[in-house]
Design goal:
The complex is a heterotrimer of chains A (614), B (142) and C (243). Chain A is of the alpha/beta class and 614 residues long. Helices cover 36% and strands 15% of the residues of chain A. In chain A, strands 1, 2, 5, 6, 7, 8 and 15 form a 7-stranded mixed beta sheet that branches. In chain A, α12 packs across α15 and α13 runs parallel beside α15. The chains are: A alpha/beta (614), B alpha+beta (142), C mainly alpha (243). Chains in contact: A-B, A-C, B-C. The interface between A and B is large, with 89 and 82 residues.
Chain lengths: 614, 142, 243
């Protein structure tokens, strides 16, 4: 805040606006500069780009690397892998596009200074698994942020983007965004010719297993507040597969990663009595999904399904058998550093409970559901594919452009692109950026213009929660109970309870059905109305308010999609109690949705899945 | 508490916006532990090593300690884990192989040609792929 | 005047003792000291302790070494030494040259002015620009909270004192007004010790000493040892103000 000023409106003009400074946003910023030497490239980030996003604490592995230089994998292989894991439903063109570019991204990371572990004999990257390589990635994010800062005209930190702005001269074309500065409270109006959304997916839309202080220990970052979805949804961009939420089997309470354990330490799971259990559920699973259970590797959701069935049968908890592996000091080091470089909280949990995997086989659990687009799941925006290999009906404009002109996406934002992880998200940011530069160049004099009325109206909307608190506060003596406003945490807990009980969270064993979904949507509707009455005490709470707003809109989308798909495509992620089986006859397709802000209505439709790779 | 001298590094770095300044001491504290990911960004950023993490009370018994020393000038990160029962583990890892600030700006590369702008190759491709050419698929007939 | 100064000193001592005893900060400090000693891998002998105390005094106290950025360190040194000189010369003038019969040597008021001005420069610079809740958190410099009690009463006291001295030299009719303000601000400064950050100026050196001892005895507050690698690469630490 200035010495004597109140709230200012700051106008920022750019050619390309990158929303979100995570892996995808940093990739987009870097690549935009390469192709647009004279363009104004602005990156806007809710936190501090140095440690923002899901890679804040670092990573211990890069989970998407082909190794084409050593003939380890080809891009087509990765498409088959992702397709298999997602029970057949991925955008093969987008996935292929990422897979063919990701190696160059990883090589640049190494060049920039990311320590990648090497096999001492061959000198090649040390493989954790078929797609994964091991890194010392504690400073992964600072390194990548440095590349973005070198490229951007300017990086704006601590500014939360709340809404996109649309072109007032042409329908269905983006023209910028608005947001507020979390430190100074200034209102920001971004005008841009093209916008690339690289914001976060959705944590905290389902009630987490730990609901007290432990609420913070979500699997996906708590600051992934579904802005990747809410921003495009609001302006009518089509979304895909929003029902495809992911449930993760991870170490208990800390949600520490198991990848290195399975792949490098070669550990395995067993039930509470020390027995193998997965094969017991083969027939049961086959009845639900048919031949999909015979695929190799077994799809992630089906492995979850076996765990859930075993636990329901009363033979939990499921444990990771580590005692053998941890006898090897090298593997023991990997087992611990795996957490320290990626999920420190798991090391804290084990230290606090005296769990030494040399002497104890630690407990696993299945997490609450998350909705995101860069892991073993692919919810997100429906985007146009690469010109050289996308099928005709997957291509209507520039690569990674959504169904709104000039609106591009990367990372969690884009649907259908499972298993891209950090490197793939960065690569996708680069892909979107190059396309956005072309789009901007092609615009010529036909530039989008923002409506002053629109952003002035939005300014009132953005800061209304602070006004609600300021005025409503006069009604009560003190405390958290007000008849006229809801605190952001109260709204969040209500959202999480609705999603948990009606849309397939942990308390219902991830199961829902049409009556539950109908009721859930009613309750979400009332929550949405109450969102006009959130009271934000200060700018921090205002950020929490807008995170909640984005989460609520994304949750509505999730509920509608879950209702629309009348099958259980991913048992182990969620179940439709009224349509328990996988149904390839009717549902080997994508679900698409479009939201109309004016009417509040959702339109859902199917889209064909084209298999361009055999 | 006394180790904190109110420098603001943790406030500046926290991805969750939960490290803020106390009104009585003008020092930093975690205002919302239920939105804390235990990412340790603040811990690593504190020049006084004044920040320590106590595992989530909801499931972490007391008496443990996981502390870190991130030494940028040495390109190392060192961890000391102390179990509740006193057992200790120590780890040291590299964090970077190049100098801080040494990344070449994309503008420093030769500007791409208009043809390159229209092709599928991204910056530094195909060289940085370490193979001859960017893979592509034959166009599908739908 | 002399009585007043003695009362102020007693208030500081009393306030600090109250703080340490009633709030238990002394007990906490000594409990922590004992814990660190028992967890330490090696004994720290008396001679080593003295040497660490001297190091603490020289580095942390005399040169404010704990401050990690140049501007914070400089502002603190100005304010600290300014205050020491200002208080010392006040005491010397009040006790050494109390009446017009014993005229004050000219250098003393000059030093008094210098000290006061240093406090004002360092202090106002801190107040408007360096304060973490303003610079890193983005609050307005006019937002006042309890943590500001010490610095504001210090600045009020010194500012009022300087103005009073200036007006007195010019024979102004407003002199007594500013003497009154000066006395009020000074009383608040020294009287509010149990509620302000004043006593932390004594806690800080104690904590700095304790830290050196815990590094020496191997407990290091559970921190890992520094890595056995050379310092080849710089750091890119910037001012924590990225917004």
């Amino acid at each position: 805040m200035g010495l004597f000023s109140g709230r200012k409106t700051v106008h920022v003009d750019s050619d390309i606006l990158v929303i979100g400074g995570g892996m995808a946003g940093c990739g987009a910023t870097y690549e935009s500069r390469y192709w647009g030497r004279d363009l104004k490239i602005v990156c806007v980030e809710k936190a501090n780009i140095e440690r923002s996003g899901a890679v804040a604490q670092g990573l211990y592995a890069i989970n998407c690397y082909m190794g084409m230089q050593w003939d380890e994998n080809q891009p087509e292989d990765h498409v088959r892998y992702a397709r298999n894991d997602l029970m057949g439903l991925v955008r093969e063109d987008l996935g292929y596009d990422i897979a063919r570019h990701v190696d160059s991204t990883v090589h640049k990371f190494e060049e920039w200074g990311l320590p990648i572990m090497k096999d001492p004999e061959t000198g090649q990257y040390l493989r954790e698994g078929k797609w994964q390589i091991m890194i010392h990635g504690e400073s992964y994010k600072p390194i990548v942020a440095e590349a973005a800062r070198k490229a951007a005209t300017k990086v704006y930190n601590r500014i939360m983007v709340t809404h996109l702005l649309m072109d007032k001269t042409k329908p269905n074309r983006v023209a910028g965004a608005v947001g507020f500065n979390v430190r100074t409270g200034d209102f920001y109006v971004f005008r841009a010719k093209a916008v690339i959304v690289g914001a976060g997916g959705a944590s905290h839309i389902f009630k987490p297993r730990s609901a007290g202080e432990g609420m913070g220990r979500t699997w996906y970052a708590p600051w992934s507040s579904a802005s990747a979805y809410a921003l495009p949804i609001q302006v009518g961009a089509k979304m895909m597969q929003m029902e495809n939420r992911i449930v993760l089997t991870r170490f208990k309470d800390g949600y520490g990663p198991v990848g290195a354990y399975f792949l490098h330490l070669k550990t395995y799971t067993e039930n509470a009595y020390g027995d193998e259990y997965e094969s017991k559920w083969y027939e049961n699973t086959k009845e639900l999904v048919g031949d999909y259970i015979d695929r190799h590797p077994v799809p992630t959701c089906l492995r979850n399904h076996a765990i859930l069935e075993e636990i329901k049968a009363g033979r939990g908890p499921i444990r990771m058998v580590t005692k053998e592996a941890f006898k090897d000091p090298h593997l023991e080091t990997v087992g611990w550093e795996n957490f320290l470089g990626m999920t420190i909280g798991q090391a804290v949990v084990w230290a606090s409970q005296n769990i030494d995997p040399k002497h104890t086989n630690p407990e696993l659990t299945t997490s609450e559901p998350y909705v995101m687009g860069s892991h073993a799941t692919c919810s997100g925006a429906w985007a146009s594919g690469p010109e050289d290999c996308a099928p005709a009906d997957y291509q209507w404009g520039y690569n990674r452009m959504m169904t709104v002109d000039g609106l591009f996406g990367a990372g969690d934002t884009i649907g259908g692109t499972a298993h891209k992880f950090s490197s793939g998200s960065f690569a996708e940011g680069r892909i979107a950026a190059k396309a956005a530069v072309n789009y901007v160049n092609d615009l010529g004099s036909d530039q989008p213009r923002v409506s002053e009325q629109e952003y002035q109206d939005l300014e009132k909307v953005v800061f209304q929660p602070m006004e609600n608190y300021r005025v409503g506060r006069n009604e009560i003596v003190a405390g958290t109970v007000s008849p006229s406003y809801l605190l952001p945490i109260q709204g969040l807990q209500r959202l999480e309870k609705i999603m948990d009980e009606y849309v397939g969270g942990i308390s219902s064993h991830y199961t829902t059905n049409e009556p539950l979904l109908t009721r859930g949507l009613e309750l979400l509707g009332m929550l949405k109305e109450d969102m006009a009455h959130i009271g934000a005490e200060d700018l921090h709470q205002l950020q929490r308010t807008w995170e909640l707003q984005h989460r609520v809109l994304a949750s509505e989308s999730v509920a509608h999609h879950t209702m629309f798909r009348k099958e259980t495509r991913w048992p182990g992620y969620y179940y439709r109690g009224d349509h328990m089986k996988l149904d390839d006859d009717d549902w080997h397709c994508f679900t698409l949705s479009q939201y109309d802000q004016e009417s509040g209505k959702w339109e859902l439709e199917k889209a064909p899945v084209h298999h361009i790779i055999d | 508490m006394t180790r904190c001298d109110g420098c603001g590094e943790c406030v500046d770095i926290c991805p969750s916006d939960i490290m803020h300044i106390d009104k009585t001491y003008r020092r930093a504290y975690n205002i919302e532990p239920n939105f804390c990911w235990e990412c340790y960004s603040c811990v690593k950023a504190c020049p006084q090593h004044a920040i320590d993490v106590r595992g989530y009370a909801e499931f972490a018994p007391m008496g443990h300690s996981v502390r870190v020393l991130r030494e940028e000038e040495k390109h190392t990160i060192s961890w000391k884990i102390k179990f509740r029962n006193g057992q200790e583990k120590n780890f040291v890892s590299p964090i970077r192989t190049t100098e801080w600030g040494s990344i070449k700006s994309p503008s420093d590369y030769e500007a791409p040609s208009p043809d390159a702008l229209k092709a599928q190759e991204l910056a530094h491709e195909p060289e940085s792929l370490h193979i001859d050419a960017l893979p592509t698929l034959p166009v599908q007939k739908n | 005047m002399q009585t007043y100064i003695v009362v102020m000193i007693l208030m500081v001592v009393g306030g600090t003792l109250f703080e340490t005893l009633h709030k238990g900060s002394a007990k906490y400090f000594f409990d922590n000291w004992r814990k660190s000693k028992s967890k330490g891998s090696q004994q720290v002998g008396a001679g080593k302790l003295v040497s660490l105390a001297i190091q603490t005094g020289l580095a942390d106290v005399l040169t404010s070494a704990e401050f990690c950025t140049a501007r914070r360190r400089i502002a603190h040194l100005m304010t600290m030494y300014g205050f020491v000189v200002y208080v010392a010369t006040t005491a010397i003038m009040v006790f050494g040259y109390p009446t017009p019969d014993s005229p004050t040597p000219a250098f003393l008021p000059q030093l008094w002015w210098l000290g006061g001005l240093l406090v004002c420069i360092g202090g106002y610079w801190f107040w408007f620009f360096i304060r973490v809740d303003v610079s890193a958190e983005g609050n307005s410099p006019f937002r006042i909270v309890r943590a500001d009690l010490f610095i504001l009463s210090l600045l009020a006291s010194v500012t009022a004192g300087l103005i009073w001295a200036y007006l007195q030299a010019r024979g102004s009719s407003m002199t007594d007004v500013f003497l009154g303000l000066y006395l009020i601000a000074t009383t608040v400064l020294f009287g509010s010790v149990p509620w302000s950050k004043f006593s932390h100026m004594f806690f800080k050196p104690a904590a700095a000493f304790e830290k050196r001892v815990s590094d020496a005895n191997g407990s290091r507050s559970n921190l890992p040892e520094p890595a056995d690698k050379p310092k080849l690469y710089g750091s890119t630490r910037e001012l924590p103000r990225h917004y």
